[in-house]
Amino acid sequence: MKQELIFLGPPACGKGTQTNKLSEYLGFPHIDTGSLLRAEIAKETEEGKIAKFHIDQGHLVPVDLVATIIGKKLAEDDCKNGYVLDGYPRSLEQAEKLDIINKNVDGDREVSFKAIYFDIDTESLIERIVNRQSCPKCGEIYNKKFKPSKVENICDKCGVELKTRADDNEEIARERFNTYFEQTAPLVEFYEKRGMLYRINANGSIEEVWERLLAAVKA
User: Fold this and answer.
1) Catalytic residue among 72, 137, 147, 176
2) Contact 203, 144 (CB under 8 A)
3) Looking at residues 153-159, what average pLDDT do you find?
4) CA 18 to CA 207: how far, in whole Å?
5) Which of 76, 81, 82, 126 could be disulfide-bonded to 3 (CB atoms 3.0-4.6 Å)?
6) What are the angstrom distances between the C-alpha of 111 and each of 5, 18, 175?
7) Which residues are registered as beta bridge partners of 133?
């Protein structure tokens, strides 16, 4: 049976780390809208040109265009057995678009669809964010408290100095969380009413959260 997995959760909840790991574990592609948009822009496709125009103007990429790009990806052969979709949908409108995409791609095929919500308290998230570091070369994410590099402030993979984002501070983080929870609450309710929502406790170590995630995926 095809497995379709989407993931909901606030910034710094650990989605990126866990979904990348899950993608490798299941052998499904890890899909995120940011990477797809950058790929379309780099290839200079028609969709990529339109997306670039909006981004260059400082505007959000139109919902229908993002849905078109997502739809193209989910129809590719590497998604035929399942996918790990991170960062989409982010609104009820996008959730409804995803319903249409899946219906067009899957037809009458039997499918298991799950929305997995990383449930974590705000104070733990604040602590994660203010301790977060990243590699400017390969993009690997570290955390001084929860996932430190082997050599302090140096990337394990590239050997370059790790950086901390200017907006990784408590004040900005709290504003981002407030916005996220306002936007996402209806989406959580949307999937919960359908019986498709699986909540996992995202507090704890990477290994602990991984075990909870696997249990939800296999449920």
Assistant:
1) 176
2) no
3) 93
4) 9
5) 82
6) 10, 22, 37
7) 142
Which residue of the set 15, 73, 97, 128 is catalytic? Answer: 15
Kindly state the DSSP code that residue 78 receives in the 8-state scheme. Answer: G
Residue 144 is among the residues annotated as catalytic for this protein: no
- Give yes or no: 132 in active site: yes
Give the three-class secondary structure for 147: strand
Q: Which of 38, 90, 144, 199 is catalytic?
A: 90
pLDDT tens digits, 165-210 = 777 778 887 887 887 888 788 899 999 999 999 999 998 888 999 9
- Our CA angle for 35, 31, 195, nearest 5°, is 140
Given a contact cutoff of 8 angstroms between Cβ atoms, the answer to whether 125 and 170 are in contact is no
How many Cα atoms sit within 13 Å of 65 on the Cβ side? 20
Query: Which amino acid is residue 171, in one-letter code?
Result: E
- 15 part of the active site: yes
- CB count in 10 Å sphere of residue 79: 18
Tokens encoding 86: 């991170």
* Alpha carbons 193 and 136: distance in angstroms, whole number: 41
CA distance 160 to 15: 25
Q: What is the pTM of this model?
A: 0.79
pLDDT band at 100 (very low <50, low <70, confident <90, very high): very high
118-141: b (≥16 Cβ within 10 Å) or e: bbbeeeebbbbbbbbbbbeeeeee
Instruction: Please name the amino acid found at residue 206.
Output: I
